[in-house]
Each structure stands twice: as C-alpha cells, then as structure tokens.
Design a protein that fits this description.
single chain; 420 residues; alpha+beta; Jelly Rolls; 4 domains; nine-stranded antiparallel β-sheet; 15% helix
Length: 420
C-alpha cells in the first residue's frame, strides 16, 4: 500500500524539523544575552528625588523587584549605583483595641441594651461583638454619649447575623467618633447573650491606591461542579493588593471563595498553558462591604472561584481592582547622566545603608521625569566568547548543518524512488 505523497513528506520532514529546532536552540543558547530596560532621568537638581515606577515596568520585573537600579557617574566618569528605597504606598488601617467594660445590660420589652465604657479617649471606629447565640439575624442601633443622659445615633439598622456552624458577621464598622460611652440596642424576641466586646480605634496611614481598570470580566460555571469562576483580565501586569467585589443581587447570600493570580503563561502545541498561584480566600455576603485587602503580587489576570453549593450563580457585573503606588526615594550622590534600569533578572536585590536610616530620608522629595524606555541587550562574555572567539567554530557548525540537511535530503530521495 502506497502512502499519499503529502503523508510521506510529513514523515521525512519531521526529523529535519526536529534537527533544525535543536540547532536553533543551541544557537540561541550559545548566543544568549541578558537584557534590561533603561529610562534616562531628567530633572535631577537636588540630592533626594522621588522616581515613580512606570506602569510598563511591572511586566518586566520579577516579583522581588530585585532588578531595579539607578545609575549615575562618579568623579572618574565610571557608572555608579545611586542608593534608593522602594516604597509601596497604599492606605493601611491599623486597628488598636482600647480598654473598655460592659457597664449595663438592660431590657425593655424586646429591646435589649448593652452599654460600654471606654477608659481611653481615642477615635473609635469598630466594635466586635461576641455572642453566645449561634443562630440570629438582628438589626443594631449604635449610639454614643458623653454622660449617659443624652444619646446620639452613630449607625442604625446595622445588620448582624449568625448561621449555625456556617457563617458569622458581628462586626460594626463606622466613621470615627469620640465618646466615653457607647450603647448597642438590639431588637429581638430571644435574649442576646453577649460574652465579650472588643472596641477598636483605627489609625489610617497615608497612602495612595492606584485603580487598575478591568479590561474584561466573565463569570461562568465550572463543569461538573457546584462552583463558578469569575475571571478578570487586566490587560497588563500590575501590582494588586485590593479587591472590591460588587454582586448585583436582591436577596441575602453568603458564598465562600478563593482568589488566584496568574503567575505565568507557557505556549504549548495545544495552546497557552496558564500557571496560577493562590492569593487569598474569604466570604462574599450581603452583610459586609465585600472589600478584601490582599498580600500584594504582580499579575495580569485574577481568577475567583466561588462555592455556590446548590444556589444559582451570583450576578457580578463589576469588581474594583487596586494596587499600591510604587516609587523610589533616591539619593543622587553622583553626577549626570542618570538612568533608571530594570529587567535584568540575574541581579539580586540591592542592599543599601539608607534602608537602615529611613528617618533621615526627606519627606516628599520632588519627583523627576523619565524619558521613554530603551531596551539594551547584554551578551554574557563567559557564554559567548569561548564558542565564537575562533571563527573555526562557525565553519564547523555550518558544515555540520549542511551535512545533516544533505543526509536527510538524500534519504528522502532514495525512499521516494524505492516506493515508486
């Protein structure tokens, strides 16, 4: 039986293709160089300046940010590193428990009152209530007073809930207030048994979130499971440390979920293969604000796996994605020209003395201007020179390629004539 000519061609061409690929890989290996991106820096007129990292830099950096360097010239016109401190600047809320006691537990009909006295006088912004009850759905009125005679409303109709062995939400968040007395009113048929209370003051650090627009979002069921996936494409690699998920739902719900970030993509013969890393987990609910701070990571895609149990998928038309503002505080000790460089993944994270003396860094130094990035390639002399320093290596390699291709060509001709 004679094979069609097109199949015969495939049989003989495949070995040639494999050899060619091998040779190309070898050539690429021996001539491989390490590259980096370079931005000329303009506007350096003081010792300290702020250098904002451009958005395109994040896709060229490792997760350790190790390859960032600032260069200038020393007195001998030799390239010299300029020390810097990397700042990931975002708002942070630091909760601090304040001393408090439960001074009254009273009841009037179905209204139950709990009064708390605060020993300190900070700005208060959160109360965590620990109830012995494990199955309730109550609305809370929170009031403040200076003397327990006149009470002022802080929040009302604040919903707290407990589902037996499933879910509990008993935290009250509110705008900062300063009262020596707080009172919680709960309207309930059953008796609320309050075991303990934790009252927190909140200190919000200065910082700046950057909004990352979501290029596309889709929510689809996972086949043969009760879960669904919410996938967001950001269109570029950026640092992510904040999610606000916005379900559009008119009924109560709570769903456990996990968050994964896209780490890398590898192109294979069957298509793109994506590698994901776990980032966080939590619970979506109709009682909270569904805001979730995350440990920062660099990614271009976010995947949220939602456990729906036997419920229908939630309609989630939007998700807010944010990250910290990244910039460098640089001490320019040399002389121009100055450049920002990044992307050489062979570099380790630098160690500068100024990291131990952060208090000596001026606050709010003036920003500088970055010009357009230029890609520069570095040929590794240890890898390249031994192979190509003598032109004989090139002639031998070219001869080997000619012999291999000639041998396969003759084999194909002979096989074709034999089958005719």
């Amino acid at each position: 039986m004679q094979l069609p000519k097109n199949n015969l061609c495939k049989i003989h061409c495949n070995p040639i293709r494999r050899v060619l690929c091998f040779l190309l890989v070898c050539l690429g290996y021996f001539s491989n160089g390490q590259g980096y991106y370079e931005h000329p820096i303009k506007g350096v007129n003081e010792q300290w300046h702020r250098v904002d990292l451009p958005v395109e830099a994040f896709g060229r950096l490792s997760r350790s940010y190790a390859s960032i360097r600032i260069y200038g010239k020393d007195k001998n016109d030799t390239a010299a590193e300029q020390p810097y401190l990397l700042v990931k600047d975002q708002p942070r809320t630091i909760m601090r428990p304040v001393p408090s006691t439960i001074v009254n537990r009273t009841r009037k009909g179905t209204d139950h009152y709990f009064t708390f006295e605060i020993s300190d006088e900070p700005m208060l912004s959160q109360i965590n209530l620990d109830f012995e009850n494990d199955d309730f759905d109550w609305k809370v009125l929170l009031e403040g007073s200076m003397d327990q005679k006149e009470w002022f409303t802080i929040v009302k109709d604040y919903r707290i809930i407990a589902l037996p062995e499933k879910y509990r939400f008993t935290r009250l968040d509110f705008d900062p207030v300063n009262y020596p007395f707080l009172r919680v009113k709960i309207k309930a048929q059953e008796k609320p048994v309050l075991n303990a209370v934790t009252i927190n003051s909140a200190a919000v650090t200065s910082g700046e979130y950057v909004d990352w627009p979501v290029k596309s979002i889709r929510h689809e069921p996972i086949p043969n499971s009760k879960n669904s996936e919410l996938i967001m494409d950001l269109g570029k690699v950026v640092p992510v440390s904040y999610l606000k998920i916005k379900p559009s739902v008119g009924h109560d719900y709570y769903r456990n979920f996990s968050v994964r970030f896209l780490k890398d993509s590898l192109k294979t013969e069957t298509g793109w293969r994506e590698q994901w890393v776990n980032a966080a987990s939590g619970t979506l609910s109709s009682f909270g604000n569904n805001v979730f701070p995350l440990d920062e990571d660099l990614t271009s895609k976010i995947k949220i796996t939602i456990q729906n149990q036997d419920n229908q998928m939630l309609d989630i038309p939007a998700v807010e994605v944010k990250g910290a503002k990244h910039y460098l505080l640089v001490r320019f000790d040399g002389k121009p020209p100055y450049t920002l460089q990044y992307g050489n993944h062979k570099l380790n994270y630098p160690k500068y003395d100024l990291a131990s003396f952060k208090n000596n860094i001026p606050k709010n130094p003036a920003p500088v201007e970055l010009e357009k990035a230029v890609y520069k390639k570095i040929i590794d002399p240890e890898a390249a020179t031994p192979l190509f320093a003598n032109s004989l290596w090139l002639y031998l390699l070219m001869g080997f390629i000619i012999l291999v291709l000639g041998g396969f060509t003759m084999s194909m001709i002979k096989n074709a004539k034999g089958e005719e």
